[in-house]
Design a protein that fits this description.
Blueprint lengths: L2 H18 L8 E5 L5 H9 L4 E4 L2 H11 L4 E4 L8 H4 L5 E5 L2 H10 L4 E6 L13 H10 L6 E7 L8 H19 L10 E3 L6 H6 L4 E4 L1 H4 L4
Parallel strand pairs: 1-2, 1-8, 2-3, 3-4, 4-5, 5-6, 6-7
Length: 225
Amino acid sequence: MKVVENLKRINQQINEACQKVNRSIKEVTLIAVTKYVSIERAEEALDAGIINLGENRDDSLLEKWEVLQDKPIWHYIGTLQTRKVKNIIEKVEYIHSLDRESLAEEINKRANKKIKCLVQVNVSGEESKHGLSIEEAMPFIESLSKFENIVVDGLMTMAPFTNDEQILRDCFRRLNRLREQIQKLNLEFAPCTHLSMGMSNDFAIAIEEGATMIRIGTALVGEED
């Protein structure tokens, strides 16, 4: 199925989720996750009107960058190795996976402008997932005040892969509560505007629980690799 047809269906679902909780569709940024598709498929997403693309490997991002350059807004959404920061730092607008001080130091050192970072939180506590625990997140964010090139623009999480709606809602609500706690501190370097949560299988629930960024791959651009 073409991206434009998938997009029409997904936009309808986004709109329905927003209406349920009296939110505006303008509050939700759709990120097309293009990590498993070709440059041609990514171009198809841009042609369909999607402007935010997400990649989780530096080599895949750089390959697409060579062709697409700065046409899209690039989001780095995967685990970022410290040694790979230099490869992507001038290409991306957002990094969704800040989870340790060594990574913050490298981002700060390599950046020539303020980089919008989302702190990755492992809300579910699953060993298979990266990120800080809920308890670790606040002290970590406060420790980032010394890095002049980092703006903590939000939080990111990956919910458990389950059909249990209550488990999903609990995960998303806990991240939203954490964001509210951070916002109350009025930290200039950490406005914590965004909640990056929700993927192909659970984005509607994530929107109902406050997501401002949803990361959709398979349901939107498919899977080719």
